[in-house]
Structures are given as structure tokens and as C-alpha cells.
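ARCHIVE CARD
Drawer: 12
Card no.: 0347
Subject: one protein chain, sequence and derived structure
Cross-reference: see card 0346
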Amino acid sequence: MTSFDRAQQRFLFITGKGGVGKTTVTAALALKLAAQGKRVLIGICDAKERISSLLGVPPIGEDIVSIQDNVWAVKITAEKAMAEYGLMILKSRTAYKAVFDNKYTRGFFKGVPGLQEWSMLGKAWYHSIEELPNGEQRFDIVLFDAPATGHGLDMLRVPKVITEVVPPGILRRDADRAWKMFQDPEQSGVVVVTLPEDMPTNETIELFEALETELKLPVARLIINGVIDELFSEREREILLGDHDLDRSKPGDEAISGGVRRAIRERVQADSLERLEQLEADRVRLPLLLKDAQTPEAIRELAELL
């Protein structure tokens, strides 16, 4: 297993099946990297912003705010990102208003396939290369709390498509620069979060295949979240999972029933971990926390384990 103690990338795209703890891992990773002295920006593209509650800070809006020592965060929306991009390109607020304050133009931009996804991903990427007036990098690393697997893959496809079909110009130039960075494992990588369960494992394997064969993007880490300790040996699991005629009204049978449920969960986990071991990636296992994992204290505990 490989920790993030020597992570040098400037951009990490964090994704995984919905419900696997992707945002929880993002928050913990931000604390981990900040403790190393890195200036970390969390880019959030989920409408239901949860980073603030996980870290115990005020709600995060569409402007970059400092939320902890060495940690900043911003909620990235397509509308705000497109407006910022338009202003940056047009260089003039008057010209910007003439274009983006027109309801027909706004409707056109919303209808262009992939443009909203690129505006959000592009904004996150831009902050990874953004410089201060003195020439220093504003942030050392950007953690992009990306959409779940399917939408996340679609978002990653957009800059590749732009480089292939859009005529030369500013949009293609920026997409090409971002795409080259995303393909460079020294600068960027995808962090895949999963659970040792059947459906998340299946989706993770499919995600790896798409990243490796279709997009050819590097996986920085595979994080297996919610791993439970094994209480039973394989032989004990076989015995517990044998045929039982259980009567839950009897105290002894009720205890056996609980053991059977645990044995089933352990077997599913063992099978899932074996399948995940076949994937080529540095990996980190995070334990299932017995206490509430949605608290700042739990996030700090997970940060120590990354």
C-alpha cells in the first residue's frame, strides 16, 4: 500500500461510484497534504456541498475561501465558471456583458455539448497553474471533488474531444494544455475511491478499463474505503455459511444469525479485495470507522491513514 506522503502532482481528479466516500476522502486528503505544508485548493462540483460540514467550517460558495491552514475551497458551478472564462478571454467587462448578458447567447452556450463540463473542469485545472503577481504558484495542488464515475468519465472525455474536433483557438489551446497535463503522471492523476463490495468493485474495474484503454490517463491511487477487520477465518466462514435452520426467537440462533451476516460481509469483502488486487495501481486501504465518519474528528483520523 502506498500513502500520499510523497505526492507531487499538481492536480488530482477524485471520483468513484456514488456513496463510496469520495467527498470524505477528498476532505481527508486535503488535510493530509496541508499538513505537509502544501497549499491545497478543493474544487467542489457537487450541488450538495458537503466539504464544509465534514471539516466543520461555514458553507462554501462560488468564491475561493480559506477554510483551514493551507486549505482553500470553492464550489464550482458551470454558470460562474463560464462567466469567469468568458471574462478572461474577452479581457473587457463591457464586451463580456454584451455576450454573456444576452439570454439567447446564454441559451446557446448551455446547449453546446460538453461546454458546461469543460467550464468546471477547466476552472479547476486553471487554478492548478494559476500564478500570483510575483510569479509564484497560487496553489501547490488542486483536489477536484469530481462527479461520480459515469459523469466523471464524461467530464474527462471533454478536453480530449475538444482537442480533436474544435478549430484552433483559445478554447482548443487551453483544452490541449490541460489534456497534456492530465496525461502526465508527474503532474496529474485520477484518484479512484471504492468500497470492498460487489457493485462498487464492478464499477471500479470498468472505470480502470476506460482510463487505461480509452483515455490513457494515469491513476494516482486506488483508495479502498470502509474495510472491516476479519473476525472469522475462511474455515469459520464456511461453517457459518452452511445450511442453518435458524429460529430467531431462540437466543443462540439469533447470535448465529448475526455471525452469518458478518461472515457473508467478510466473504464479499475478501472476494472484492482479491479482484481489486488485480488492478495496476498504488492503493490505500481505509478502515470502516466505528464512529460517525462524517465529523471533523473522523476526517482527521482518516487523514493520518492516507
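Annotation on reverse: The domain at 11-305 is CATH 3.40.50.300 (Rossmann fold). Strands lie at 11-16, 40-44, 65-68, 71-75, 141-145, 188-194, 219-227, 283-287.
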